[in-house]
């Protein structure tokens, strides 16, 4: 391809709405353009990268036994009523009526569709396992679309679904996918972690996220410094922390004026915050009140908290009225004296404290010498704490967790029989008995992987593509394309590289050298070859590595091998 | 791929709704499954064929200077209001509201989107031409979806849009696309015609349809037997037919009881129907009456008629009341005596008749000795006749038109400035003057091309794939896969073919030979290789060509070349 024919409108400025580097650079480098909030067109350079990512995904899915199919985007509401998700999915689902007033959604995911597709035709254990996948636009009407294609309302996703005859089979399919995902992100040239994750609204059993590390990423992950344990902050399991042994003292109520925060309380009583117990009050979608108690210096993990209360899903901060209705006093709360039947969840670590301080459910009063095991009565005890830098690893002996940030580019789920049981997708097992199919589902955000790659690989001049997913591996620049000799030389080099199987672009534009070099850095081709006056003079071919800035001058007869050797390392 | 791992559920029976062979066979061969009216999933075999067709399309689009992009499926209503099509598109457009009540449609086509995409960035004639395309799901809520993926509500389309600086440039882009389309359908192994077509609701100037010939096709096309002229029946231009010269006789009104049809009239007056003039009355969407007159043995071409009346688009049969309001009498109509200002369109051939018979706008009365040139006054004269078998070719000297049927798999349009002018998509020309972009648009129905291929290539046993788009080129059948020796031999042959670059499937299922052979014929692999007892005995390898049924026995050391030679001809 020649740059004179390439539709790649680069920009000097960044639109105001682009908050993070990848979004800004995708705009400026002429990769994407916005058509409406959370909806983007992929221009030719971006689409080349997307197709390279898709090809890597396809090869790994096929190698793991996947077969590619394509299901419709529009999905009849009846299927979602069978699974119970038509009502549950909420405002993120885009709903459509056809000319006969029949209801459809624009697929946010395809568990229902694929279960319906196979349920009449996967009849025997002999046909299993079956792994089917597609690469397709998905639709979620995000409340706050942002970060360009990273969190958009229409996005490209690879979704694979596995069907097995038993849990062992499902686990084997899950394991294969975990390996395939590791291969995919490795082949894309990305630094990533496979982290334990919450299975959220998809449901089912265990789940892993594949998170591309990037300082501005939305996801917070905890990684052990001694073993391979890694988990999303939503999921990271934590060991309860034992408090030093103490003889239990009698519970006592004390006056504590102006101490409605933990900091004020600790200062007033001249105790460390680790001796206090704090409360956070939530309400669920159906207004059920949940009171959470943790050690004063700890934070609530809302996902763990919701998982600890049956039926709870989305939590919001509780209204004062609701707290008062159960006998609570905001700013001065403890489980002691709260109305029976209220959902009280106490963190495992808080439960092990001795002679601690907590509210007395009365303004300006606290209890001292609180011993939760003795004083709290019937409460739910669970790990509801948010992981912090330096927490002990829950798996190995001596490791500590470190908090990093990243972008979740893929997630895999062992679903079990959640959908197959609800939708009657059964097969006959070896004994002739009907059993629900054991399912798994496995997604990769394709556009998001591209954005994550940029978020992880850029500098102040622009993108630095990993070679495997660069729109072109090499750009050959005719430094002054108006000089016939330079242009012809550049064309020669371009043709030689093409013939050698290199994915190469010729920048033959009659622009100033500075403009072209800036565009090369902005777009981020891994290797730049400049053909200028020195090349004409003495055959010296200047090759620049985008990532390191390294400049190497090759002779005419050695440059090809030099470039190929460079590419092998990028 | 091994058939034991392949998800290809073949069926004995055909669902009742499948009316035509391609739909029936796609069901039975396990290529597609229906999820709702006009919505289908493509299973693995079908998806392989789709991907092969897509790859051929991509190569030809790229070779013609096209660049692949991807625009969103959801399109904001504002863009369609700019072009004036938001109101005009009608019930076929699927409309959606997002959570902020903003209106979108699910793209039925992308002229508005692409015009908006490039209008701020194609600023100079130096950037032109630009040709951008995508391969994407499109949505049209057909009133009567049918024939499986051939006329479905969600379908895969390749759409390319060209932008040029002048009409010559547009015509050059159009010509390149016409060549590319010819290459695509040729490479797919299809027998097709490029036919002149009406540009319909898309608008603009000239247009061609690429019609795959098939006896059950929905499209009627006229092809000359002497030259390369071909046109859709909607478009086929016709030469006016001269009537034999006669001296004009005086107009006379005669009583003609019970002659409200042309047949009855001709019999009553004992004249050939070629001496009569018949009337057909229509009303437009805004109720305007249009009276059409043709020679008694000719039929109206409603598209040509609508094109002859400014502002007319969709025509329906007129109500009697409307006819009477302008002085007409149903069954006995002529232009003579109709109220002034009424839209009267007379076919060119009817206009050349002498001493003909037409209605007298009074029940049971006709005029004889009607001479349209003398008697009809101010009427519109146009070619409004539907082509018939044997009509003279409008282009060459001695040719005659023959009527065939086919499936429209692609259509190309020279749009001109219809969208660019309405949406302010201008560039600066050589003189620095702002000019609207000259556009073209070019579509291929990808799923429809697959269905058309089947419609054209099948027999009573199943599909007969052209090699280039077969899901697999060759199937190797282990005749009795329970016999270890046969299975191992088949695997060996399968691996040899794979190594030689043949796209091959191994049928290793432990089914009866008959079942497997029937499936091979049904699915339609171009070449079948059977490994059975004779192979074990004396190395004889039986190769069958699906299209001809020809059976050839090769020796172990010659079969590979034999199969490759066969494939080259399929």
Automatic annotation (TrEMBL), chains A, B:
Q: Does the keyword Protein biosynthesis belong to this entry?
A: yes
Q: Which SUPFAM superfamilies match?
A: Class II aaRS ABD-related, Class II aaRS and biotin synthetases, YbaK/ProRS associated domain
The record's subcellular locations are: Cytoplasm
Q: Name one GO molecular function term.
A: aminoacyl-tRNA deacylase activity
**Location (main, coarse):** cytoplasm
So what does this thing catalyse? tRNA(Pro) + L-proline + ATP = L-prolyl-tRNA(Pro) + AMP + diphosphate
**Gene Ontology CC annotations of this record:** cytosol
What EC number(s) does its UniProt record assign? 6.1.1.15
Which leading EC class covers this enzyme?
A: ligase
The record places domain Aminoacyl-transfer RNA synthetases class-II family profile at 38-466
Q: Which UniProt keywords apply?
A: Aminoacyl-tRNA synthetase, ATP-binding, Cytoplasm, Ligase, Nucleotide-binding, Protein biosynthesis
Q: Would I find RNA-binding among this entry's keywords?
A: no
Mind listing the GO biological process terms from this record?
prolyl-tRNA aminoacylation
InterPro entries linked to this entry? aa-tRNA-synt_IIb, aa-tRNA-synth_II, aa-tRNA-synth_II/BPL/LPL, Anticodon-bd, Anticodon-bd_dom_sf, Pro-tRNA-ligase_IIa, Pro-tRNA-synth_IIa_bac-type, Pro-tRNA-Synthase_IIa_type1
The entry's free-text remark on domains says: Consists of three domains: the N-terminal catalytic domain, the editing domain and the C-terminal anticodon-binding domain.
Described purpose of this protein according to its UniProt entry: Catalyzes the attachment of proline to tRNA(Pro) in a two-step reaction: proline is first activated by ATP to form Pro-AMP and then transferred to the acceptor end of tRNA(Pro). As ProRS can inadvertently accommodate and process non-cognate amino acids such as alanine and cysteine, to avoid such errors it has two additional distinct editing activities against alanine. One activity is designated as 'pretransfer' editing and involves the tRNA(Pro)-independent hydrolysis of activated Ala-AMP.
Similarity-based family: Belongs to the class-II aminoacyl-tRNA synthetase family. ProS type 1 subfamily.
Q: Which NCBIfam families match?
A: PRK09194.1, proS_fam_II
Xref: HAMAP family: Pro_tRNA_synth_type1
> Subunit arrangement?
Homodimer.
Name the record gives this protein: Proline--tRNA ligase
Q: Which organism is it from?
A: Selenomonas timonae
